[in-house]
Protein: ParB-like nuclease
Organism: Bifidobacterium psychraerophilum
Amino acid sequence: MADKALARVKDAPSNPKPAPAVKGPTRYAVRAFVLTWGELHDWWERYDLGSLARQLSDEQAEAFYATTEGTAQAALVLLILAGVGVYGLLAGHTQPSASPSPSASPSRAGPTASVSPSDPDVFARNAAAGLFTWDTGVGL
């Protein structure tokens, strides 16, 4: 049996086919996220920040700044989404009234606020406004 397996390996083509190209950004599993952030826990206590400031090239420093800015924006979105989820659990499901009052503002089908990822303050305000003015009773 082992001889047959060895013969199969020897007869196999030496140029394996490349993996198909993946379109769009790669999405990792939650487990990868947890492991990555577990490695980064209190990272600033394990490095001499003065040495980093002196020894990182401009390109390395810019990559770090871009990563931390993106991380801050993602953290804000995660915080907002978690808050909305908790609010939804606490508020529970309510049935919309049969006839809306004439003074009520028109409902929107979903959050449509413009979001500017380059400015975290504008992003947070727009995301919060879009989420808090969203009439979830209308559906999607």
Notes: Residues 59-90+110-134 form one domain. The first helix runs from residue 2 to 11. The helical segments are 2-11, 30-40, 49-55, 58-91, 120-132.
